[in-house]
Amino acid sequence: MARALNELRSVYVxxxxxxxxxxxxxxxxVTLGLAAIREALADARIEWPAVxxxxxxxxxxxxxxxxPMLRHLGATGAPLLHIENASASGSTAFRQACIEVASxxxxxALAVGVDKxxxxxxxxxxxxxxxxxxxxxxxxxxxxxxxxxGRHHVSVDDIALVAVKNxxxxxxxPNAQRQQDRTLDEVLGGKKVSGSLTALQxxxxxxxxxxxxVASDDAIKRLGINPDRAVRVTASVGxxxxxxxxxxxxxxxxxxxxxxxxxAEAKRTPGDLDIIELHDAFTVEELHYxxxxxxxxxxxxxxxxxDGALDIGxxxxxxxxxxxxxxxxxxGPTGIxxxxxxxxxxRGEAGARQHxxxxxxxxxMVGVGAVCYVxxxxxxx
Amino acid sequence: xxxxxxxxxxxxxERGDEGRLADPVLRGxxxxxxxxxxxxxxxxxxxxxxxxxxxxxxxLSTHGILLxxxxxxxxxxxxxxxxxxxxxxxxxxxxxxxxxxxxxxxxITLGQRMKAKLxxxxxxxxxxxxxxxxxxxx
Lengths: 381, 138
Ligand SMILES: [Zn+2]
Prior knowledge:
heterodimer; A: 381 residues; B: 0% helix
């Protein structure tokens, strides 16, 4: 019978690291990736030869980018696998690393995401559409913003408050691409992109790296890793889009069913969540997804936002890292960086961004195409 | 009368013999399971997986309801100059489609009845072809 991750042996996040997300630069991806991996190894206080398997998440670097980077850590001969799953590449790599450790095949595995902005074309399916070239992602979400505002009778200026919160969080995150507080006037007054979306309501184009090391109980004992800083992965679920009733937004519907499975796996309810890192590439997404996760009823997201319930220190801190809007979305790293942020929060090591008494965190990513990945992490003690 | 030169003749056509003033139709398909989709393809049904002969072409009326609109202010592709308006329409037959609003459409509001028409567009080579755009039913 099929089994969930939580029914296999326990798996823990024991090391996290980043290369700051930043504007496109001359820095090689090798430099970005190595910085994140070395920081994660140092955080776990283990040496590279202890890592038995590596998952390299990239969407834009082309074929086989991993080995030319990993060889500079000392070529150990350990297996490595590249994972491309659009925006969810990093989340998928993390899930595979967790599965490998939970299954008992490895005791220590690495998930590393690294990307630089290269133009990558999706292959032609042979099926044409009326005007796909006119509907890039920001216009897809501009349409959803218009629909959300109309259906729930909310103002598009209120939807922009998501960006004010996430820029505020990003301003306190040294790994964020955008580290500047923004007023609502600044957000609304910026460059108009599509529909009501302005530039500061959209994720920036950037590059960077994030790494996470996962380990079993055996490895924690054997390698002398501090168990108090280990954060347990209590659910891992991946799904892809189904056929939904006409007019139902697939991003939100797919999120709803994926989160339901993940909460059931960890025996948790939405009210248990202290931290959520979710795919806020565009402001309206945060509202869709907190409603799909079940923090509030459909259309009530703005009320929570205005009450400060989604702030650090509120009922549930949503995107304390700054999210995709402020921390950034270099693609391969993004889902792994979310795991790192939640781990910091659950350890109580998030400094100026620390949410009080954080015990349970949820990481959510969607990827165009469309896939959804959700993980739950919990403080051990 | 010469048939119009269409930009994407695999996706829509002029309606049969009623002439140019009639509304165009979308070239959709229907699976033997009853699922109606756009555009037509025979790779396989997204709902049940039946393929090839189980999928038959079905002309779809372009009449429907406006679900969303967005005025696009920034667009990198030089072949489409911003600003232009994109609309999302739930067809009466089921599928939801997205494409451009006709330049001469009247004011539109959510929930509004919409239909498509063929509008002339100038191509890079100077030739005029017809493309399908939505417009408000007034
Ligand atoms: Zn079917």
